[in-house]
Specification:
The complex is a heterodimer. By secondary structure, chain A is α+β, with helices and mostly antiparallel strands. Chain A has one domain: Mth169, Chain: A (2-Layer Sandwich), CATH 3.30.1280. Chain A is built from 2 helices and 3 strands, in the order βαβαβ. In chain A, strands 2-1-3 form a 3-stranded antiparallel β-sheet, covered by helices on one side. The longest helix of chain A is centred in the N-terminal third of the chain and has 12 residues. Chain B has a single domain, classed as Class I glutamine amidotransferase (GATase) domain (Rossmann fold, 3-Layer(aba) Sandwich), CATH 3.40.50.880. Chain B is 26% helix and 25% strand. In chain B, the strands form 2 sheets. Chain B has a 9-stranded mixed β-sheet with strand order 2-1-3-4-11-10-9-6-7, sandwiched between helices. In chain B, strands 5-8 form a two-stranded antiparallel sheet. In chain B, helix 1 links the parallel strand 1 and strand 2. The chains are: A alpha+beta, B alpha/beta. At the A-B interface, helix 1 and helix 2 of A face loops of B.
């Protein structure tokens, strides 16, 4: 079983990397980009009996910093 | 004063910190490796040095904060032992939950490496008692992830409780309210991005950093 963990910055937290990507896209001539937020995708390969609670604990204890980040768990068959 | 300096894979200011502590206090720190499960008995100070522990993987300080020795550091901090985290050490202490907030990529994206002016905001802690409140001191910074962030309620609380130890006189990295160094509520844990260990003898260009270690040594004498 795989799980994808999407880690993103909380709303209101300034994202310097996203802003730099935004500038770079504009520099390449792409118009219409209103905002860019950069995050992180972590793909876990897990034993089939891994519980949702366990994955949630992994996110809270290590994969995301709850001060600045949110996470979303996506189970993949 | 009995102190220890921890070395993680990727630490690079551990030796400088150990030398500074020895030069200023006259006592050489014990050097500890990150895999230690327990700390020596009777420590007065634990130094968590700068560098790029674990290659800054995941987030700066994130992996080191989950290493065995930091579990022991958290317990020691809860017993009241002084813990000083500098630069990557500050990042590690926030990741470990010993200090509020988080350190993000500098607002200007660039690594900043320069001597900066700081204002001493709290001169009554055991780390800062050799300074005067409101005094300007000069200490070098060298970091990529020094942009201090905490939510507005937390910022109000730590400012109200006197937990802001140092502020930058100029905005160098986007830190919330120009915060350069933070104390825990009890006042025995300090994290700061500037490097006091790099400003302890005249050949460094100044000695403002030395007074931080002098204050720690003095606090140990007063507690004895």
């Amino acid at each position: 079983m795989k799980a994808r963990i999407h880690v993103t910055l909380k709303d209101g937290v300034l994202d310097p990397q996203g802003r730099a990507i935004h500038h770079a896209l504009e520099g390449l001539g792409f118009g219409g980009v209103e905002d860019v937020r950069a995050g992180r995708l972590i793909e876990l390969t897990l034993a089939d009996d891994t519980s949702d609670d366990d994955i949630d604990a992994m996110c809270r204890k290590l994969l995301a910093n709850m001060v600045i980040e949110n996470y979303r768990i996506e189970r993949v068959a | 004063m009995k102190s220890a300096v921890i070395t993680f894979p990727g630490s690079n200011c551990d030796r400088d910190l150990a030398v500074a502590i020895e030069r200023v206090t006259g006592h050489a720190p014990i050097r500890l490796w990150h895999g230690e499960q327990t700390l020596p008995e009777g420590l007065d100070l634990i130094g968590v040095p700068g560098g790029f522990s674990y290659g800054d993987y995941l987030r700066s300080g994130a992996m080191a904060a989950r290493s065995p020795v930091v579990g022991a550091v958290v317990q020691a901090a809860e017993r009241g032992v002084a813990v000083l985290g500098i630069c990557n050490g500050f990042q590690i202490l926030t990741e470990a939950g010993l200090l509020p907030g988080a350190l993000m990529r500098n607002a200007g994206i660039r690594f900043v490496c320069q001597t900066v002016e700081l204002t001493v905001e709290n001169a009554s802690s055991r780390f800062t008692s050799a300074y005067s409140k409101g005094e300007t001191i000069r200490i070098p910074v060298a970091h990529h992830d020094g942009n201090y962030f905490a939510d507005a309620d937390t910022l109000d609380r730590i400012e109200g409780e006197g937990q802001v130890a140092f502020r930058y006189n100029q905005d160098i990295n986007g830190s919330a309210r120009a915060i350069a160094g933070v104390l825990n509520a009890r006042g025995n844990v300090l994290g700061m991005m500037p490097h006091p260990e790099r400003m302890v003898e005249p050949q460094h260009g100044g000695t403002d950093g030395a007074r931080l270690f002098e204050a720690l040594a003095q606090s140990v004498l007063e507690r004895a």
